[in-house]
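Example 4.3 (complexes with small molecules)
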Amino acid sequence: MSLRIYNTLTRQKELFEPCRPGRVGIYLCGPTVYKSPHIGHMVGPVIFDAIKRYLVYKGFEVTWVVNITDVDDKLIDAAARAGITMSEMAEKHTAEYFDALKSLGVDAIDHFPRASEHMPEIIAMCERLVETGAAYAAGGNVWFDVAKDADYGKLSNRKVEQQEAGLRELEGAGKRNPADFALWKAAKPGEPSWESPWGKGRPGWHIECSAMSTKILGETFDLHGGGMDLMFPHHENELAQSESCTGRPFVKYWMHNGLTRVRTKSNSGDWTVDDMHESSGNAIRVHALLSRHGPELIRYLLLSTHYRRPIEFSDDALVEARKGLTAFHRLFERVERLQGGKLDDATDMDRHSAEMMQGEHEKFARDVLASKMRWLESMDDDFNTAGAIGVMHQMATEINRFIEATSLAQEKQPELVTAVAAAAITLKRLGGVLGLFRAAPAATSGGDELLGKVMSLVITLRKDARASKNFALADAIRDGLTKIGVTLEDLQGETVWRKA
Ligand SMILES: [Zn+2]
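Answer. The structure with zinc ion bound is encoded below.
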């Protein structure tokens, strides 16, 4: 099976062949750290975390870089308003960004380069571009000369004339063409600045990413990601600078994720869907969302949509996601009760499993393995996590059906229980490749191991009471639990508990 990736540059799915066999370099544009992160900032990291895990699962050695833009106009303004320095402002929000990544389980990023720590590389790149004639200096600024770049616009499919329209405000700063963009900006009084061959100044945003990606991943690397909104001008300009500087292709596969949208009901009762944006006042802060819903649900919701489509946040979407995720956790709990031990200790189903099994569970094993193949096909089809999660739901249904069809809960049959556990752990590990199912959900265990043990003792006592026909005591246990917010459900001979 071979992986295909939709490449924005060629507008088609292409067979994935890394620049260096067995190794993959990924660069994802990170945040400008002038405000606390909102959930839109987490979409790229969660998607690429799943992508990196999948590539590692397929045997690649992956280096993943996410930059921190800590030198920027917005940051200078925000720091001035708060009465602190730009670096203090950046430090504060970088720490918040790291916290948000950690709480969402995004722990596979290898490098977080900061623009402020890469001035020599940035300046060297500007100098090289001036030397080759791709850029020119004027009044302490350095401009990229768009007219010298014959294939400018190839990523976003725009013509130079289209870009000119939006950039009139920069005319008069020594530019030859309104479409030319800044590689280096002369410092204004009181602004943070660095020494350069053109006097004190600071870099433009685009050159920061070109310099840092090249330093860590090389002149040509495999995957460059970012939101659709970064395609133009940011990525177009990164591409133009880098290729003009090195004379080589910059990136093999450009990947752009859909933007985050918020669906809300207005006072008049109409539904509206808007892009989530700081300036629209509808940005949902990460910590607020996580404290209400927990990290796994948010990760699940983000991965339930194909990455190139917009991701919609609404109460309904969160409720749906909760239902979907709970179905998996209920299945895992069910299988753990059946086998009387931790699912993580079970052995996966592999291609030998079906041969080893006979009768009705040979068919079951073949079905599970066929589902696993479909899961791999989904992921190989441009990292279709939504399709992969759909396949996982089918697997969960197959396993539940098998448990019911074989009346497994009532009469424990060791071979069948082993087959079911193998199927469930296969499913759980596929989820693990997406970064799911790493901890038991708080809703059932409360994250408290002791509580789990106490509850299984209470359930056993209630079962004993019923077995000895002391129904009054059994009912008293159930009613008492209901009063303190714990519900019991009797499912095919087993009893599960849940916090209300
Ligand atoms: Zn960037």
